[in-house]
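Give me C-alpha cells for this 254-residue protein.
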Amino acid sequence: MPDAAPNTDSPTLTAYVVGNDDAWAIEPASPRRRWMDEFADGFPYRCLPLSIANQCGWVVRCPVGLTATWYGGNQARDVRIAFDADTERFRHEITSHFGGGVLTFTLPWLFRTPPGVSLYVRGLPNAFVQGARALDAIVETDWAPMTFTMNWRLTDASRSVRFDKGHAIALLMPIRLDLVEATEARIRPLDDDPALAAEYREWADYRRGFIHRKDRAPSEWQKDYMMGRHVDGRTEASHKSRLKLAPFEGPTQE
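Here you go.
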C-alpha cells in the first residue's frame, strides 16, 4: 500500500542538520527581558504588545562566548574575533565573512517551511547589544535548498562587543509574503466606520478619566487590552496574552 499522505493541518518548521550543531541551541523565545525585569513592579510587562513581540518566534543561541572588535575598515580582516573556547572549530562558524564590520554566524541547519511561508530572520525583539545591530532578513524557506547566515553589524570602530555563550543571536518567525502583498493599505476618516468610531470615543473618554483621576494609586493600571476586554465588558475570544510555541523535536530513535 502507498504511504499515507502527510498531515498538513498544522504548519511545520523543520531544521535539517547540515553542520556541527553541538553547543548550538534553538528554542521558543521567552517573554522576559533583563531590562524589563529591572523596572519597579515589572512595569514594561504591562505592555502586552511588547511581551507578545518578545516571544513571537524561535531563538537561536550562540554556541560559544566571544568578543568581536571592528577596526573601521571594509575588509574581513578588519574584524577581530576572540573565542572563549574551541577557537579552531568556531573560527569557521562565526566569521567576518562579508567585511564592512559585519559579524556572520553560520547556522548549522537548513530550514524548511510549508508552501507560501517564509522565515523572517532578525535579532531578538526588544533586546539590545551595545555596539552592534542585528541585520534583518526574510528567507524563502519554502523552496530554497540553501542555508542562510545570521549577521550583525558592528557599529562602533575599535569597540569590543561581547556575545556570551547562550546569547540570543537570532529570532526565526514564520511569515506569509502573499498576505503582506495582498494587504490593501488605506487611510480613512474614523467616522467611515460609525460603530468603531463610537467604541473608540467611549474608550478614549474612559482612558482620559483614568489618567486624570486624582485618587489613582501609582500601582493601579487598566488591564483592558491585557484581558482582551472592551469598555463594556465584552471579551475577544481570539485574544492572546501569551504565545505557546512548540519546542523543536529531535529525530525519532529507532
